[in-house]
Every structure is written in structure tokens, then in C-alpha cells.
Amino acid sequence: MEYDELDGPDGMDIRVPKDDDYRTCSECGGDCHPDPSAGADGLGVRIAFVCPEHGVHSVIDPFEDLR
Fewer CB within 10 Å, N side or C side of the chain? Predict the structure, then answer.
């Protein structure tokens, strides 16, 4: 996944995906809703994007570049 980097408050870097494909259902093209409870214990933050009709579409790790 490619990201745009923005300057955040207090010098923090903010990464924003360049496109929204990660949250668009490949089955129906609908918008998937974020579900932050998809992370496994001990593995850090993971966010699942869930289609109401087709279930989990994708899981992203917003901190993958820091691991």
C-alpha cells in the first residue's frame, strides 16, 4: 500500500493511503466499515474493513512501517 505523508501536530508524521481500495468491497464495490477490534492480542493494532454484506474485506496495520 502506498501512502502520502503529512506533517502532524508536535512533529508527528501522519500517513494517509493514496487510494481507498483498502476499504472498497471487491464483491459489490460498497464501502467497508472500519472495525478496530480485529487485532489479535500481542500483535499490535490492526483494523479490519468489513462489508456489511460480504464480511471482512481487508485488514491493515497502520504501524507496519515501524515494526
Answer: C
Matching residue, cell 500500500 = 1
Query: Cα separation of 67 and 61, whole Å?
Result: 10
For the record, the C-alpha cell of 64 comes out as 507496519
Is-contact 28 53, C-beta < 8 A? Answer: yes
- Taking the C-alpha atoms of residue 5 and residue 12, their distance in angstroms, rounded to an integer, is 10
Read off the pTM: 0.61
Predicted pLDDT of residue 15: 78
* Cβ pair 20, 34 in contact under 8 A: no
Identity of the residue numbered 50: V
Q: How do the domains of the chain map onto residue ranges? A: 3-62
Please, what sign has the CA dihedral across residues 23, 49, 32, 27?
positive
